[in-house]
Amino acid sequence: MDEEAKPYAARERFWRGRDIAFTPLEPDDAELIHHWRADPVAAHEIGVWPGALHQLRERLEAYAEDRDRDDYLVLLADGTPAGHIALMEEEDLVDGTAEAYLLLAPEHRRRGIGADALAALTDLAFGELPLHRVEAVTHTGNTAALATLRGAGFVQEGVRRSACLHRGRRYDCAILGLLRTEWEALDRPRSWDH
Length: 194
Known about the structure:
Blueprint: E1 15-16, E2 20-24, H1 30-37, H2 40-46, H3 53-65, E3 69-76, E4 81-89, E5 97-104, H4 113-127, E6 133-139, H5 143-151, E7 155-166, E8 169-179, H6 180-185
Parallel strand pairs: 5-6
Antiparallel strand pairs: 1-2, 2-3, 3-4, 4-5, 6-8, 7-8
């Protein structure tokens, strides 16, 4: 494999899923993530417009120092970056609660990569970290994300009405959760089995 053609191929794989791996997010990944966020579908679904590139780079530098979140690039087997995934602690580790975040590149959506990445993230949260609960928030109309989350065992717990503003329109947000006991009951291979 040509190293220049696949600059991410040499990156350390911190955690693996079925067909993906996580590598720690670096400030130099800002341009790639900025590009993904500029996609109109992604901007709508995550409710964030891409700001200036330098602001995102500064945020990624801060994330590297933040002990309350773990951010990774999702890599395919050949080293192609496919998305950004994170686990963010809501309060503190004593609470045992964190929020999952996933942004896929447009060309990698609807191919099972999100489900694989989310399964790997929950395996990390419950298999390696002392978490009790992982939650996720998405628009109630984001059927692809809702299906992926439900497929990973998440249960919709409620709706925050009119909680997100995008392009002058208000959207409801679904709140989903997965508890450690529910994760333990899932009948699927774990990340460490791959």
